[in-house]
Structures are given as structure tokens and as C-alpha cells.
Design brief:
This protein is mainly α. Helix 2 runs parallel beside helix 4, helix 3 packs parallel to helix 5 and helix 4 runs antiparallel to helix 5.
Length: about 140
């Protein structure tokens, strides 16, 4: 199921992270682990092991999904639901910095945009100046 629809796989992982961040579960560790999974998936996607392009179905056309859509599915809900957790937002910032180093223009652009988005949400939700300073230093869009 996930092989045929990678976007569904990202959404499923993100939903698990969002539920883990809910007030009744309060499990930021699970969300942090899923952020790590997302990071690894983007690395693997950029460097596929099998580079063969054998066409099995030469009359089938599939619309290409934009990287920005994958990033929205993977990271926006976690940014929204994780704003109260310093460790979650910090892990997001570190992930965006790591993904920005991939030699792929769309991934670089999406990483910068989502870094700014997550930091802006954190500014609204967090009131500890020290936490915001740490996040600002770790954020991609300030560098």
C-alpha cells in the first residue's frame, strides 16, 4: 500500500506524531522519532539504490508530486502540534538543516520554507526567550 502511494505513508507517520503530541498522550519522543524517519526517507528518496528505469507499462502516465507537497504532508502538522515542545521544534530545525544539504533544489527550498514556518509558529506559542534563541540559532532561514 505504501509502495504505491508514498504520500500516504508520510501522512500516516505524521498522523502518528500528531496524536503523540496531543495533550492526552503527551509523547514528544514518538514525534521526534518520526521526524527522524521523515529525514531518512527524504535522503533515501534523493539517493535511490536501484537507478534502473525499466518501463513495465509504457502507456501509463502518473503526475509528479511536488516536493513541497511531500514536505507539507510530513512536517506542517508536526510543526503545528509540536509548538509547545521545545525538543520537537529543535529536532525539526536540525532536520531541515540536514535536508538542506542534499543536492536537490526543491528539497533545499522546502527545507528553508519549513524552517521558517516552524520557527514562526514557535515564536507565537513559546514565551521563554532562551528557547527561542536556541531555535533561532538552529533555524535554517536565519543562516
Amino acid at each position: 500500500m505504501f509502495d504505491g502511494d508514498p504520500r500516504f505513508g508520510l501522512i500516516t507517520l505524521t498522523e502518528i506524531a500528531s496524536r503523540a503530541l496531543s495533550t492526552w498522550i503527551n509523547d514528544p519522543g514518538t514525534a521526534i522519532q518520526i521526524i527522524g524517519c521523515h529525514e531518512k526517507l527524504f535522503y533515501l528518496w534523493n539517493n535511490p539504490e536501484n537507478t534502473e528505469n525499466d518501463l513495465l507499462y509504457d502507456r501509463l502516465e502518473i503526475a509528479q508530486i511536488e516536493i513541497s507537497n511531500f514536505f507539507d504532508d510530513a512536517f506542517k502538522p508536526i510543526s503545528r502540534d509540536g509548538t509547545g515542545f521545545m525538543e520537537v521544534i529543535l529536532r525539526l530545525q536540525k532536520t531541515f538543516c540536514a535536508l538542506e544539504k542534499i543536492n536537490h533544489d526543491a528539497i533545499k527550498t522546502a527545507s528553508k520554507q519549513h524552517s521558517k514556518y516552524a520557527f514562526t509558529r514557535a515564536q507565537i506559542a513559546m514565551d521563554m526567550e532562551e528557547d527561542l534563541e536556541i531555535l533561532e540559532k538552529a533555524s535554517l532561514f536565519r543562516k
